[in-house]
Amino acid sequence: MTNTIDLQNFLRTRRSIRRFTPDPVPDSVIQDILTTATYAPSAHNRQPWRFCVLTDLSVKTRLADAMATDFQRDLVNDGVAAEKIHTQVKRSKERITSAPVAILLGLDMSEMDSYPDENRNKAEYMMAVQSVAAAGLQLLLAAHAQGLGGVWACWPLFAQKTIQKTLKLPETWEPQGMFFVGYPKFMPDIRDRKGIESVSLFF
Q1: How far apart, in whole angstroms, are the C-alpha atoms of residue 34 and residue 54?
Q2: How far apart are CA 68 and CA 154, in angstroms?
Q3: d(C-alpha 4, C-alpha 125), whole Å
Q4: Which helix (DSSP H) or strand (DSSP E) does residue 143 occupy?
Q5: Could you give the angle at which helices 160-167 and 57-77 cross, rounded to 10 degrees?
Q6: pLDDT tens, 90-113?
Q7: Which residues contact 94 (CB under 8 A, 6 or more apart)?
Q8: Model confidence pLDDT, tens digit, residues 18-51
Q9: b or e along 92-131 (b: 16 or more beta carbons within 10 Å of the residue's beta carbon)?
Q10: Can you say how many angstroms the Cα of residue 147 is from the centroid of all Cα atoms in its chain?
Q11: What is the pLDDT of residue 154?
Q12: Which residues on adjacent β-strands are paired with residue 54?
């Protein structure tokens, strides 16, 4: 049994890592990380999470280019200055192509319950989203346990159709997030956390 203090320290030392060494991540390690992610809790135990692992540079580049088109269009529509658009699009593309592993996290509603009213269907969808998010956190902790760093990006929510088309995903796979994973170049300091008293109520 893991010492409780050691486990608390492990959980608190996870960081969001955005810069990685070029060292490849072994396939067996990726498999272990994904397997651990699937032990997250899920609504009705339906396990609605889906994973798409990208390690091939040509595939990552194709996806980065496709997503960049959507991103640039949105920034133009928002009235962002051209120079800033160039910087932001370039940075987002480099995030995808420079990480040794990019893991797309998806949601599949096909095995979730369906109801005759909108309110319950909305709640069911939210339950599935929460389940997928739980698997996402578990994935990051599993990577941390392997000595890897990772960061969670939510951009796929803004380019779901483009991602589905580019990667030729099953129609039921709805992109929710993307993780960039690799061996960290350095470990950043922990950022300040809000105090428990400011985010909690005790009755």
Answers
A1: 13
A2: 14
A3: 34
A4: helix 118-145
A5: 160
A6: 999 999 999 999 999 999 999 999
A7: none
A8: 999 999 999 999 999 999 999 999 999 999 999 9
A9: bbebbbbbbbbbbbbbbbeebeeeeeeeeeeebeebbbeb
A10: 18
A11: 94
A12: 102
First to last CA, the chain: 32
Tell me the CA distances in angstroms from 86 to 91, 92, 96, 159, one per residue in order: 9, 10, 16, 18
| % pLDDT > 70, the chain | 99
What are 86's two structure tokens?
């160039």
pTM for the model stands at 0.93
Eight-state DSSP code of residue 108: E
Sign of CA dihedral 13, 16, 22, 27: positive
pLDDT in tens, 150-185: 999 999 999 999 999 999 999 999 999 999 999 999
DSSP-derived letter for residue 178 is E
By residue count, the chain amounts to 203
Instruction: Categorise residue 68: left if φ over 0, alpha if ψ from -120 to 50, beta otherwise.
Output: alpha
Confidence of residue 187 (pLDDT cuts 50, 70, 90): confident
Please name which of 145, 179, 129 lies closest in space to residue 36, comparing C-alpha atoms: 145
Instruction: Show the DSSP H helices in 48-117 as ranges.
Output: 57-77, 82-98
Maximum Cα–Cα distance for the chain, whole Å?
56
Confidence at 2, pLDDT banded by 50, 70, 90: low
